[in-house]
Amino acid sequence: MKRAVVLLSGGLDSATVLAWMRREGYACHALSFRYGQRHEIELARAAELAHALGAVEHKVAEIDLRAFGGSALTADIDVPKDRADGEISSGVPITYVPARNTIFLAFALAYAETIRSSDIAIGVNAIDYSGYPDCRPEFIASFERLANLATAAATEDGARFKIHTPLQMLSKAGIVRLAVELGVPVGRTLSCYDPLPNGTPCGHCDACILRRKGFAEAGVVDGG
Amino acid sequence: MKRAVVLLSGGLDSATVLAWMRREGYACHALSFRYGQRHEIELARAAELAHALGAVEHKVAEIDLRAFGGSALTADIDVPKDRADGEISSGVPITYVPARNTIFLAFALAYAETIRSSDIAIGVNAIDYSGYPDCRPEFIASFERLANLATAAATEDGARFKIHTPLQMLSKAGIVRLAVELGVPVGRTLSCYDPLPNGTPCGHCDACILRRKGFAEAGVVDGG
């Protein structure tokens, strides 16, 4: 059975990617990060989802992005609330974490090489959240080229790394529909940037607004 | 004054890079990692060298490469000792850490973007230690391209990231000569993979053998 490393945050998108990769026939090794994010509840949800969706392993790597600051997700900057729809997609959001997906993919690459896997999956999406430069297809393609230069697996053993991005061209509504089709327990996924400690979403941050819109457009009741 | 992030391990090569970047006129922000390496003494040396060579800041980021294992530098695998010269450069060494330079450069990129720097320096070297795939010029060039796609600084603010590799084409003897020329306190640098807790090098690992050869060829007494 082919092995894959799947980046898993506890959110809807990465849970859907995990379910997708399982359906594609991969033995999935889920990878989450404790990176100084505001809330730990997303890691609890990631563990729950890894189990529910049949990952063979779930690792949590400790990294320290707070050392550098620079984002509302890791520093003492307020997460914006109740912004109008148009504002969400204008420019790079304050919730952008410098080089985050580069760091996450670098760890995934180390993990993949160690377990002799050459498949990595990540829930980036270029449609509804195009403000993040490290979610774009050209960034992912560039990382794939890098992976094939960076590792002993590729340079010595002939491995060809592939970065799977099944959500790349889907709208949020499309992701919701795919999640339901794949049997993701969507009510256990957490999208909110600023939830209560018990996991209740704030309902007002960009991620909550986008999620609500996606479920509405897909005609799916959230929490199901 | 232009700012640069300099990856600093406490070894001879990275200390020489720091001294080089200082001479080039950069305000240098040194970055080290606590990554589950066998010995902590190299971090103490890194702090000492950052101070001695005039870095404006020295950060130590905590990362957890031991979670993945896979290398003699982070897992319970013996560091090879007293190998003949020819063995050192044949293939990828057991001391190779999967995706290590990819991870280190990803963190440097996050740090650089946060302090509005677009210059990163790393002591990779393609000559004497060509067994590491992530020390080759094509890997560095690929990371530079990635950096210019990965960040808000590059995609929104017009920054052009450059990865400086002043040691790329130098022999170990050449690095020793450069270090001396730049005033690096070479006796305080630590190359050994498996030193005593007090910092005394083992004298028998690949790094010790290579260092001894470099000093001999340069006609420089080590420890000076």
How do you describe this structure in short?
Chain A is 38% helix and 11% strand.
How would you describe the overall organization of this protein?
The structure is a homodimer of 224-residue chains. Chain A is of the alpha/beta class and 224 residues long. The first copy, chain A, has one domain (3-218): HUPs (Rossmann fold). Chain A has 8 helices and 5 strands. The first copy, chain A, has helices at residues 12-23, 41-52, 85-88, 100-114, 137-150, 152-156, 172-181, 206-218, and strands at residues 3-7, 27-34, 57-62, 119-121, 162-164. In chain A, strands 3-2-1-4-5 form a 5-stranded parallel beta sheet, with helices on both faces. In chain A, helix 1 crosses helix 7 (172-181) and helix 7 packs across helix 8. Chain A is globular, with a radius of gyration of 17 Å. The model of chain A has no long low-confidence stretch (mean pLDDT 88). The interface between A and B is large, with 46 and 46 residues.
